From TrEMBL:
It comes from Nicotiana tabacum. The gene is LOC107832698. It comes from the Eukaryota. This is Protein unc-13 homolog.
Amino acid sequence: MASLFRDRTLGYSRRESTGAAATAAVSTTSSCRYSTSSSSAALSPLPSPFSDLTPSLSASDLCETAYEIFVASCRTSTGKALTYIPADRSPSPSPSNSNSSSSSPSMQRSLTSTAASKMKKALGLRSSSSSGIKRAEGSPGSGGKPKKPVTVGELMRVQMKVSESVDSRIRRALLRIAAGQVGRRIESTVLPLELLQQFKAADFTDQREYDAWQKRNLKMLEAGLLLHPHMPLDKSNTAAQRLRQIIQAALDRPIETGRNNESMQVLRTAVMTLANRSSDGSLFESCHWADGFPLNLRLYEILLEACFDVNDEASIIEEVDELMDLIKKTWGILGLNQMLHNICFSWVLFNRYVATGQVENDLLDAADSQLAEVAKDAKTTKDSAYAKILNSTLTAMLGWAEKRLLAYHDTFDAGNIESMPTIVSIGVSAAKILVEDISNEYRRRRKSEVDVARSRIDTYIRSSLRTAFAQLMEKADSSRRASRHQPNPLPVLAILAKDVGELASKENEIFSPILKRWHPFAAGVAVATLHVCYGNELKQFVSGITELTPDAVQVLRAADKLEKDLVQIAVEDSVDSDDGGKAIIREMPPFEAEGAIGNMVKDWIKTRIDRLKEWVDRNLQQEVWNPQANEGGFAPSAVEVLRIIDETLDAFFQLPIPMHPALLPDLMSGLDRYLQYYVSKAKSGCGSRNTYVPTMPALTRCTTATKLWKKKDKMLNTKRNSQVATMNGDNSSGVLQLCVRINTFHRIRTEVEVLEKRIITLLRNSESAHVEDFSNGLGKKFEISPAACIEGIQQLSEAVAYRIIFHDLSPVLWDGLYIGEPASSRIEPFLQELEKNLTIISNTVNERVRTRMVADIMRASFDGFLLVLLAGGPSRAFTQQDSQIIEDDFKSLKDVFWANGDGLPVDVINKYSTTVRDVLPLFRADAESLIERFRRSTLETYGSSAKSRLPLPPTSGQWNPTEPNTLLRVLCYRNDEAASKFLKKTYNLPKKL
């Protein structure tokens, strides 16, 4: 139960049994219902909104005076004597009550025929557990005999707990007063003054009772004429000064109250002077002694309280219609009207609901219904006195309601939720009346600018949700502290997000449907408030995050789920609004939890990738690329890089985040980029095909040089020794080291394909993956590193091939083949060295790239063979007869790569040997035909400008039997007189450099 209802056990009580109540009613002294000694002290009412009177008037004093006014007001309008029928007698005429026929019909009406209350039905009040008839019938009379059915007047006496002796004394006094003032209305009588004159001490059981009675009447005169007068009282008023002196003296020492007593005459003069005052000096028909505010309202409030059953304080008696008719007769004396009755009765119903423990919702409903009448009244009058009373009463009701509504989550639960709509209605109604009908500021503004009901509900929702959120914060913090010794305790904001989500659901299911009557978007306002409260806490949390931790991810994931739930409620609640809920959504600035997670994951990825780059730089500097030192023929650094990448992927998919598919491309891009970086660094400085192809020598006429061959033969042995050292791995970028790099690139490319398949598996197993995430390969494949590996393999394979042919085997190819006499310097030495290198390559490189490397070596050897024939320098010269030697040597070269069918396929060999096959027939042709073909080709290339003088064609390196430069080079290396004359005549080429 909410803390606001902790006083319920004190405020809610039931009266004693019927017999006990009846016993109290027949006591010989006044036992007013409102006496502090009565059982009513168990009630817990609110302070009266009608302000304090005077501390000298007790609740019992007011109660007795109210009863006296009630009995006096029930005289007939004819002014005839008021007849009293004792409770132990029949209401039929008797000799001792000869005037009974002239007394008030309502007072004397028997209760046996009372029908069910129309007022209770109209207000929706429940029937009491015991009727007034049963209450009275069970009460013993003064003689101890059972009572007969009582009259309405007798019921009022019982309800107000006035003893029969007091009631009898009052009625006797009223008969005497009526007898002495025949024809005068009771409103023209100052009742306390007349009562003081009717009794002496002998009429009471003892002097103390008489003194108390006299003081009460004097204090009532003081309250009605001096403290709370009907009209403002001038401080210089002599009558007021005189009355104040008399009362002050009488309170210290009782005065004589006989009819002709001088002190009594002085008192009467002062009282009547004040009671008959008017603003214009005219005489009033009524005496104003009890109609000043708030005295009259306090007295009337007491009379209205008598409508509640003495045995069931939360229930109004069935005879309330008859009783209310009589109570309203006091309006003449109290100066009240229907509007004041409505507001006073609203307060009485409301206050009784509070006083009896806030459990009788029919009282609250009745107060709400009565308040609707007050709202109508407020719009029809501008009376300042009424406005003041209205303001104080509604302020008290509104204050009580708002104390509960501003924290309605603390106030209402399953046990009392039924009362919430009515409490809200009362709060809203009170606020509307106060603002719309009393507030001057509201009148000055256009009413369309202010929706009081919606504004109040908006305030209640936001206030209550903020309070509830603060309590959830404390609860979450306590839960965190309680679980701090447990493994993996939840962070506070993750707990809070769950609790806030449950609070929002509860709000949407229980409270919003109630509040929607006054605010169409109650649920939207509620979740917007919760969204802002949680968002403020989350913002502080996120600002303090420096790295991706499990706690941070848990909080952000919980926040993301909460935001989706809150937005969903807001959207559903605002679907019928004019703006489609945009106003509410604008109140909910995005948590951007996914963005925060994404940023942290990106930072995490960047950290991992940067760390990988540092590792690559450090380890590649230490890598030796030695096949003997590397198991599997590839670099350990590559194995380690792949292991780190694999671990990084595992770690990424183990992150408890909801967007693996969305962030995977960032990770893949980083890993891809640094695999490419590894390949780029690994091949850096290793050269390429162009690194080893020798520079094309100047075009010259060649001649035989037998002596040069002997010199070159000595150089051959030296270069062979250098080649052996290189192949044995003495150079970090030697052929074997390059082969290890090629193996490494191939291994990376192969493992990348495995990683891609593994990524798909990891993605399928992640909780956040969807079918559409597998519809394409974007972001799930390595895009640039496989291409980098292929490019690296191609570059290094060509580099190895051209290094072997043009560097390592240069002594037997470039410096040995066809030097001097072609017949004595054929290709066999080159083939022997080539086969050794092919064996080493085959044993070193991975079988998946072996064919490619052998093909590249074959192509390099074919290029080298052609380069010897077409650009071999002045030490080489060929006759037409040497063509067979050349063709046989080339066939031998091809056979090395065919290897009796165990080598390269024939089609591959034919593909790469096309150029050589096309060029070799030129060496078989005679010089004249070569010259003619050269002339024709040159003219075709250069046109008519070549007719007068043949231009020297540039060297393109793209050998072709129809290309002028190729034909010219065959002529240059032709050991033939015709060729020599043509070259000398046409280009003046020297026979030697």
